[in-house]
Amino acid sequence: MNSAPNLLDVRGVCKQFPGVKALDGVDLQVRKGEIHALLGENGAGKSTLLKILSGALRADRGEAVLDGETLAPNETPRERQRAGLVTIYQEFNLLPFLSIAENLYLGREPVRRGFIDWATMYDDSRALLESLGLSADPRREVRHLSVAHQQMVEIGRAVAQKAKLIVMDEPTAALGRREVQILHAVIAELKTRGVSFIYVTHRLDEVKMACDSFTVLRDGRYVARGEVGSVETSDLVRLMVGRDVEFSKRARNARAGETVLAVNGVSRACDLSGRHAIALNDLSVEVKAGEILGFAGLVGAGRTELARIIFGADHCDRGVMYLNGSELRPLRSPKDAIRAGIALVPEDRKQQGCFLEQSISQNITLPSLKRIARWRIFVDEMQERQLVEKYRTALRIKMASSAVAVGTLSGGNQQKVLLARCMALQPKVLIVDEPTRGIDVGAKAEVHQLLCEMAQSGMALIVITSEMPEVLALSDRIAVFREGCISGVLDGREATENNLMELMAISSAAALKRSAAL
Amino acid sequence: MKDPTVPEQGTASRRFDAVAWLRRYGTSLFLCALIVFFALENSRFLSLRNVTNILTEVSIYGIIAVGMTFVILTAGVDLAVGSLLAFAGMSGAFVMKALGMDSPSGWIVALAAATAVGTLVGYLQGKAVTFFSVPPFIVTLGGMTVWRGATLILNDGSPISGFDASYRWWGTGSIAGIPVPIVLFGLIAAVGLVTERYTRYGRYVYAVGGNPEAARLNGLDVPAIITSVYVIIGALSGLAGFLLSARLGAAEAVGGIGYELRVIASVVIGGTSLAGGRGGIGGTIVGALLIGVLTNGLVIMHVSSYWQQVVIGLIIVAAVAFDTYAKSHR
């Protein structure tokens, strides 16, 4: 190990959310002038740790020292930035209608006699941008810049703040190959000036290319740290996915029945407004009764997009769907889908799933009210109670009373409420997007058990998940998505992390094609 | 710092929570305190005549407030209710005039016309909100001046009066000793309460206001539900316009000016969240009574109408401030 002093020294950070231990005694050390990769699967606790570092969240326990100074736990993001720790989030914090210069010096504008000194600000901005290899007029409004250039402005802002440590969350998620190279060059240049980086990414090849050392988190715990030069990519994968609690492979005989849902040739061009950022190319899948079909792939590979099209929540340009052998008229809305017998548990529980202020029973019965209404108008409270009770028992939802607001439940129980809501519809096809995101290990196992029981009862399930052990444990078959295409369908028994990873990973050819298109 | 997006566990302690209790019953408590205070100040306050007066006054905007509760539950707002009230009332009176003021059942036509105009205008405004995605604040801000202007155009700015007794009965008559507007308000509030608590439609309104995206993904026709609440408040504004003209004996172009504030204040003081999805008509009724009692009490105490406005404004802000405080300290 290098003997350079630690710029950042984080020890024993813990953070508890209701129902989930997000961080449990995490350590993180970053030396002066190095690029440190922070690795881990979704839900490993990276985002929580970043938020604690940036001051957006407060840790329950643990301490952090930056450049010899202990960081007070109650500091605001602004105070952290003054201390030299700047975080650049995936979705940038730029003001789109202000100029580059105004963004660079926001809150620290050069002032002369009480007024903003525009000349100095523009000159300084130009010099700063040039030092980052970006030649742009500092008067331009930020919204006109490309994503890559906006990122440069973010970095420029950090430099202007004399940042000692820049934290970057998935900086290359939206960049083409060429832009990634430019970014890495800029980072390397800043490194020689003594700036350190924490670099969060899912792309392990970039870790090898750009980073010096790494820390791996798993399930909210510190797993390992080391020098990038002394490990292979496969070691990193093993550190990230290997876990104490292996999900047990489902011990059930898949008695897959008839094909329930068949999707044929779904395509959609990406649109420039950015609402549909990725193009979908000729996607075809089918799922049988009693079967769990896993959708694997990286975030943004087209899994959720296809699910939303199947559910009628989004539209596609081309493609046909068959339910129980007969063609579905194009679904124009989720209403049509629910009527046809398709249900969806969306990926974002809080934004798309729950009515947090409403009671558990209202959340469960909302789409089923038609069936339990008297004269189609009044809610039959007796039937409603029975319905809630039936699925509360079936899904083992822990609650004080069904009148309690859903917002007060733990993540795992909220997820069960959403599953209960879909089950109460008695769908033929159930699509579950990220069934265990943000819920703890015990609740995960329970949700898995429930999904298996549903399949056992003859429902056709599609499960979308970013966690490889989960997709391996649950699926009878796995459709692997890559860049808007299905790169392969694996039998659940033959699938391993290796052959999944191979199908999921962005091939360099595809990446080249993408950067050429940009 | 606590993450505000992660609420507390449901199995919180069961001990008495003063803040939560006040949040729930504070407005009612304040209303009672006001009544006691005014009654002690002036013995006439609790006289039958004065109480009837207060309630009749409250009824007219209270009817609209029932509709406004639904609108605000969907996270919308309707600023046009005062103008629409005048326009619908004037339309009814205009039809009445055309039929001849002494036509025996002219009031039926006038009532129908006023309600129909209100319903139609509500539908148009609802469609503007949903189909053209114009924020409700803007649509109804426009509506506020459009319908006021239309009222002035309709009869060249002059009032229409001289209704016959059967027309005026709706504003001044009584059923079993209770003034007609109060009876109607009671009926409409009751229907509103039942709708809110016991019907599918009520559930849908809460769902759309609480989380429109989730509502859509649960198969609800969100635009139709949003349009419908503007239709409801339009119809109720039309009815209120008819009642006010019957009570005053004239449909005036300046009728209902400032009603939108009183109506919105009733809903907000009653605890319905402007963010949608939380609150209800029960609170609105208390809020409407509170404003009625306060206005009337201040008049009886000879406080100038200028000061009344100051007091009511302060109470609106205080009510919401307390609600926000209570929410962040639960």
Mean pLDDT of chain B: 88
Briefly, what CATH class of the largest domain in chain A?
A: Alpha Beta
CATH classification class of chain B: Mainly Alpha
Query: Which protein chains are joined by the largest interface, and how many residues does each one contribute?
Result: A-B, 45 and 32 residues
Strand order of the largest sheet of chain B: 1-4
| Oligomeric grouping of the chains | heterodimer
Rg of chain B, rounded, reads 21 Å
Number-wise, the strands of chain A total: 24
Q: In which order are the strands of the major sheet of chain A placed?
A: 6-9-10-3-11-12
The amount of beta strand of chain B, in percent, is under 5%
Overall strand count of chain B:
4
**Based on helices, strands and strand pairing, what is the structural class of chain A?**
alpha/beta
Q: If you consult CATH, what is the topology of the largest domain in chain A? A: Rossmann fold
Going by CATH, the homologous superfamily of the largest domain in chain A would be P-loop containing nucleotide triphosphate hydrolases
- What is the overall pLDDT average of chain A? 83
Write the layout of secondary structure elements.
The complex is a heterodimer of chains A (518) and B (330).
Chain A: E1 6-17, E2 20-31, E3 35-39, H1 46-54, E4 61-66, E5 69-70, H2 77-83, E6 85-88, H3 100-104, E7 111-112, E8 115-116, H4 118-131, H5 147-160, E9 165-169, H6 177-192, E10 196-200, H7 204-210, E11 213-218, E12 221-227, H8 233-241, E13 259-268, E14 280-288, E15 292-297, H9 303-310, E16 318-323, E17 326-327, H10 334-340, E18 342-345, H11 349-353, H12 360-365, E19 373-374, E20 378-379, H13 381-395, H14 411-424, E21 429-433, H15 441-456, E22 460-464, H16 468-474, E23 477-482, E24 485-491, H17 497-504, H18 508-517
Parallel strand pairs in A: 3-10, 3-11, 6-9, 9-10, 15-22, 15-23, 18-21, 21-22
Antiparallel strand pairs in A: 1-2, 1-4, 4-5, 7-8, 11-12, 13-14, 13-16, 16-17, 19-20, 23-24
Helix pairs in contact in A: 13-14, 14-15
Chain B: H1 18-41, H2 48-73, H3 81-99, H4 106-130, H5 136-154, E1 160-161, H6 165-172, E2 174-175, E3 178-179, H7 180-198, H8 200-210, H9 212-217, H10 222-248, E4 250-251, H11 259-269, H12 281-300, H13 305-328
Helix pairs in contact in B: 1-12, 1-13, 2-7, 2-10, 2-11, 2-12, 3-4, 3-5, 3-10, 4-5, 4-10, 6-10, 7-8, 8-10, 11-12
